[in-house]
C-alpha cells in the first residue's frame, strides 16, 4: 500500500541514471579536540544526495546532524574521509533568520549578490524575483522588525536562494538546519508547504536537518537516520519516487504516512535507547 522502501546505508543509491550526484560523503569523520578528551561527532558516514533530491537528516540532539551540514557547506573540514559537492555554491539556512535589521527585506536578499559583485539593477531584479517566489512580492521595502517570524524566514529563504545565483554553475543546493524549529505550529505548517513549492520550482537539492519525524516524512523524498554520537548512517527510507518534481505521495490516504511515521519514530527511539545503554 505504501511507496516506502527501507534501505541499508548505500551511497550508490544516488547513482541512478536520471540524476547526477550533487553531494557525496565517503567515510566522513569529524572529531573535536585531541587525546582522551576528544569528542567524535561523526564516524564513517557514507551518503550521497542526487541533484534535485530532498533529503532529511534525522536524529537525536547531539548526533552530528549540524556538524555534517557544516561539512557539506564548507564551513568545516572532516578529520577523515571526503566531502564532494558538484552543484553550485551551497546556501545555508539556520533556525534564526539572521537578517540585517537595518536593511530592508530586498536589500537583505541582495547581500550575497552585492558581495559577488553584481550591479545594482541586476541585484534588484534577482531580489524581486526571489521575493515573489517566496510570496513576499511588494514587501521588499519593509525591515525585519515589520515582518512576522514566518515572513522573516521567507526572506532568509530568498536570501539563501540568492546565494546560488552568484555565478556558480549547476543546480542550487540548499542546506537547512532546523529552519522552522522556532516557529509556532501553524506558521511551521504553512512554511513546510511553501518550502516544497519553492523546491519544486527551483530544482534545488535540499539537505534538511530535523529531529521532528513528522516534518521529515512530510518533506523528504528520502529520510536518513543518524545514530547517537558518534553519528553514523544507520537506516534510510525512500518515501517518494525520484522524479525531481516532488515525487508521488506516500499513499492514497494518510494511513501510509502514519505508518511510516510510526516506523521511523520507533527506529529513532531504538537509536536513543541503544545510546543510553552504552
Automatic annotation (TrEMBL):
Transmembrane parts of this sequence: none
UniProt keyword annotations, A-Z: ATP-binding, Nucleotide-binding, Transport
Signal sequence segment: none
PROSITE patterns the UniProt entry points to: ABC_TRANSPORTER_1, ABC_TRANSPORTER_2
UniProt GO molecular function: ATP binding
A UniProt-annotated Pfam family: ABC_tran
UniProt domain ABC transporter: residue ranges: 23-253
Annotated Gene3D superfamilies: P-loop containing nucleotide triphosphate hydrolases
UniProt cross-references to SMART domains, sorted A to Z: AAA
Annotated InterPro entries: AAA+_ATPase, ABC_transporter-like_ATP-bd, ABC_transporter-like_CS, ABC_transporter_ATP-bind, P-loop_NTPase
Name this polypeptide is given: NitT/TauT family transport system ATP-binding protein
Species assigned in the record: Actinoalloteichus caeruleus DSM 43889
Lineage of the organism: Bacteria, Bacillati, Actinomycetota, Actinomycetes, Pseudonocardiales
Amino acid at each position: 500500500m505504501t511507496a516506502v522502501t527501507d534501505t541499508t546505508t548505500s551511497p550508490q543509491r544516488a547513482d541512478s541514471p536520471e540524476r547526477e550526484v550533487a553531494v557525496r560523503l565517503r567515510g566522513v569523520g569529524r572529531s573535536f579536540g585531541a587525546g582522551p578528551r576528544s569528542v567524535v561527532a561523526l564516524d564513517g558516514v557514507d551518503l550521497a544526495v542526487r541533484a534535485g533530491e530532498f533529503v532529511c537528516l534525522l536524529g537525536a540532539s547531539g548526533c552530528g546532524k549540524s556538524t555534517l551540514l557544516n561539512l557539506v557547506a564548507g564551513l568545516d573540514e572532516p578529520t577523515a574521509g571526503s566531502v564532494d559537492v558538484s552543484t553550485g555554491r551551497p546556501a545555508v539556512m539556520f533556525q534564526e533568520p539572521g537578517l540585517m535589521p537595518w536593511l530592508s527585506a530586498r536589500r537583505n536578499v541582495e547581500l550575497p549578490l552585492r558581495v559577488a559583485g553584481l550591479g545594482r539593477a541586476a541585484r534588484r531584479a534577482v531580489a524581486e524575483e526571489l521575493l515573489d517566489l517566496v510570496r513576499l512580492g511588494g514587501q521588499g521595502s519593509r525591515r525585519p522588525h515589520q515582518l512576522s517570524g514566518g515572513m522573516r524566514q521567507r526572506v532568509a529563504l530568498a536570501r539563501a536562494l540568492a546565494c546560488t545565483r552568484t555565478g556558480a554553475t549547476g543546480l542550487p543546493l540548499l542546506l537547512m538546519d532546523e529552519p522552522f524549529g522556532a516557529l509556532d505550529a501553524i506558521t511551521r505548517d504553512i512554511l513546510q508547504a511553501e518550502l516544497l513549492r519553492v523546491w519544486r520550482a527551483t530544482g534545488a537539492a535540499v539537505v534538511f536537518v530535523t529531529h521532528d519525524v513528522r516534518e521529515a516524512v512530510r518533506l523528504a523524498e528520502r529520510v536518513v537516520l543518524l545514530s547517537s554520537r558518534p553519528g553514523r548512517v544507520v537506516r534510510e527510507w525512500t518515501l517518494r519516487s525520484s522524479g525531481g518534481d516532488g515525487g508521488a505521495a506516500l499513499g492514497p490516504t494518510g494511513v501510509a504516512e502514519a505508518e511510516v511515521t510510526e516506523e521511523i519514530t520507533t527506529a529513532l527511539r531504538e537509536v536513543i535507547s541503544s545510546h543510553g545503554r552504552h
